[in-house]
Every structure is written in structure tokens, then in C-alpha cells.
Amino acid sequence: MSAPGHPHVGVTQAFLGMPDALPKFQDAAKTALADPVLRRNLAHATSTIRAKRAAVVGELDNWEDLRLAAEAIKDRALQSLDQHLESFEANATAAGTTVHWARDAEEANRIVVDLVEAALEPGDRREVVKVKSMLTQEIELNEALAAAGIDAWETDLAELIVQLGKDWPSHILVPAIHRNRAEVREIFLEEMAAVGRPAPDDLTDEPRRLAEAARLHLREKFLRAKVAISGANFAVAETGSLVVVESEGNGRMCLTLPETLISVVGIEKILPSWRDLEVFLQVLPRSSTGERENPYTSIWTGPAAGDGPRRMHVVLVDNGRTDALADPVGRAALRCIRCSACLNVCPVYERAGGHSYGSIYPGPIGAVLTPQLRGTVSAVDRSLPYASSLCGACFDVCPVRIDIPSLLVHLRTKVVDDRRGGVPGPEAVAMRSASWVLADPRRFRTAARVAAAGGKTLRSKLFGARPMLRRLPWPAAAWSRTRDVPVPPTETFRQWWERTDGGRDEP
């Protein structure tokens, strides 16, 4: 599905561009549950990251104070987002950066493609290197670049694995979390030679050897690229600065070697002041990689003569974010700093994997963010608010205290409200029937007696003392396929009450 000659993640982009073609979360999850290798990979990776996070968070006595501070800072930034964005533009422009505004994916892609075309001279290789690119995957930038004949090379190790494997990311922090080392080795051996320096013939699945093969493969791209495209973890309005935190050094190479740097940044990444950044440089690494601080923290404020890129551009992207901002409840999702802590503790994600969510943003945060950015028009987006057991573990670990369970319930309400007035589904029919029965005491008593009579028959003739029914007949079979249904009691509560004289034992 990739464009010929362009090994970007065509599968990812095609899926993101056509959510109507994707199955509902529940259907996609069934496929993932049937894959034992995927489940084993996910369980190992998420449990390892959870343990590391718990250890470094446990070192801080003021962790909850930091969470409260991070929540307050992000809320303050969102409440006056327009002012902070204008302040960022003014300060970045004063520092020599050119700021562009994009209302949606199409406009953002057009701006970036034009900037890349302007930066390349005749005879230059038509390529860019990329880092921190979740937003660029959201807007399908790689597709737009490929259509213009420009190769986009992912330089994060996990993103490289995904790209070479013609796959799509399944985790915010570790996009290739669904791949094990043996699979990575095969991908490198089969795919690297077609797009650059080949992997060594004697490559093993030892992590050190895999990292070395990736480093040598990427080094030639870093050294020759004239243009780099980055995202940003944070944008500081007070100074017009951008911040990228990473663990491998690939970001540092992208941000310093090319002549032109184009940063594609979501408008929600704004922090009001330089002082605010200090809080997030504590909570982000602990929540994401389980480290006290990131090995590489890059901060830049415009170009500098003789050091780094000569031209810097920032593209501020909306793409549905102001729609989310307009929702007093839903806007909390915009506090997200993409740490992935919620994915690593989510029992649903651990079993279903990231691809089941049909979005570049998987897991609990994807279940509340994606439907707000894309709307709830497609089946997959309508299903995402239900991709949770509402256990609350995601809120407990979120460094900016996003109450994801409450947002899920809020979005479920919106999904139901959006479908009012149309042809009712099976669930709506069942609920209306229950409402009709429960609205009248006589109907309720009759239904209870019928259920008790049915329960007595089932127990005496079919199941004996067995307390559960495994499957209900159609049309209730779809509901009971994933639930054990209790056999109805042999008497109603009212019958029991009368038989026991109000539930009291006489002396």
C-alpha cells in the first residue's frame, strides 16, 4: 500500500485516512487476542515499563504535588490558549523562526511540502529525516511527501522498525512494541538494503547488534539530509522555544545537522512560561521511560549563525483540537503529554494491542482523544469510548491527571446522543423494553414472576444447581458471547419477603 519507491508507512497512512474501512475496536481486538506472540510481546514490554516507572516514581515524596502542578499548568495554558499561541508566534518570530498556521491536515501538509521543495536545490536528494513524528502520522504527512516524490525517513529506532516492516505503530512510546527481537532481525535483513546501507549478513537478534545496524543505516541519511522534520514535546510561549526529549540521540542529529528544520507542532503543546517546563521535565521521563531524566533534552529558540540549521520553521496545527477545546469535559484530553503511562497499565491495551484502536493514538488516551479529533462518524471511532473496563488505572498513573474513565463515559453519552432519532440498535431496543417494564409496578411484578418461573424450570430440568448460563439464544447471543449469564432465581424478592415475613426470623 506504500507508494512505489517510498518506504514510508503506507499501511498506517491508508488506515488513518480511511477510518470507515476499519473494523470496530471489539472486532479488531478479537484478532489480536488470537495472536499468542503478540500477547506475549505486549505482556513482557508493558510489565517491564510499569516496573521501571513504579520504581522511579516511588523515589519522590512529592509525586502527587508534581501531578497537581502539571494539571494546573496545562489547564491554565488551555484556558488562554489563543493568547499563549500569539505570544509564542511573536517570540519565535523575533528569534528568527518562521511560524505557519494550519487549520487541518490538508493545509499542514501543503505548507510542509512547499517548505521542503523550497529548501531543496536541483541535484539534492529528495528526502527528509524525521523525529518525534506522531502528529505528522496523524495528518498523513508521509503520504503527502511521497506524492511529491520526497522520501521521509523515520529515525527513531522503533519508528524505523515499523517503517521498514511496512507496518504501523501500536504504542505511543514504543511504536514497535508488538515486534520481538527475532522479527526485528528479519526485517532489517530483508528491507534495509533496498533503502540504504544493508544490515550485516551475520546480524543476530542481540539488542546491541540490532542497534548498531540501525545506527549505521541511519548515519548516512543524517549526514546527507538537507531538511529535517520534527515534532515537539513542548512549546514555550514566553521565549518561542521548542523542546524535544528522547533517549537515542537521533533527535539531536535531526535537530542540528540539516540546513532546514521544519517542526510540526500541535497547538495544545504550548506551555506559558519557561518555569513551567521544569515540572514536565520531571514527570514526563518518569512516566514514559521510567527514567529520572531523559538522556537527550534538546531546546532551540530560532537559528544561530554557524550552529545548527540556518532556517527554522514551525507549523502550528489545529486539526480538530479547537473542537475538543470547546467541550468543557472533553478538553481535558488535550492535557496529554504523550507519556504512554496509561497504555502500560491498561488491561485492555495489554491484551488487544495498539492496532485494534485504528488510530495513531492507541490505548486509553487514544480512546478519548481520537473520537474528538476525528469525530464519531465511523464505526471504529464510535466504538473507541467502549474500549475500556473503566477500572481507573489510567487516571492513577497519568502525570497530568486526565480522568480518562470520566471522559470515556462522557463520550459514550455523546455516541448515544448522536444516534437518537434513527433506527434503534439492539441495545436501544433492550433498554427501551426494560424501561417499559420498570416504569409500571404491575409489569415489573409480572416480569419478575415469569423470570422466577423460568429459573425454577431451568434449574430443575436443565442445569440443576448450576448458577450460570453460558449462552443465550438469538438475539441475546451477541450479549452473552462475552459474559456468563446467571440462571434466574426460583422466586422473586417479593415472594421471598412474604415467605419470610419481611425477612425477619420469628423467635
Automatic annotation (TrEMBL):
SUPFAM superfamilies: 4Fe-4S ferredoxins, NagB/RpiA/CoA transferase-like. InterPro entries: 4Fe4S_Fe-S-bd (IPR017896), 4Fe4S_Fe_S_CS (IPR017900), FTHF_cligase-like_sf (IPR024185), Helical_ferredxn (IPR009051), LUD_dom (IPR003741), LutB/LldF (IPR004452), LutB_C (IPR024569), NagB/RpiA_transferase-like (IPR037171). One of its GO terms (biological process) is lactate metabolic process. Residues 333-402 form the 4Fe-4S ferredoxin-type domain. Keywords: 4Fe-4S, Electron transport, Iron, Iron-sulfur, Metal-binding, Repeat, Transport. One of its GO terms (molecular function) is 4 iron, 4 sulfur cluster binding. Residues 419-499 form the Lactate utilization protein B C-terminal domain. It comes from the Bacteria. Transmembrane segments: none annotated. Residues 85-317 form the LUD domain. PROSITE patterns: 4FE4S_FER_1 (PS00198). This is Iron-sulfur cluster binding protein. It comes from Mycolicibacterium chitae (Mycobacterium chitae).
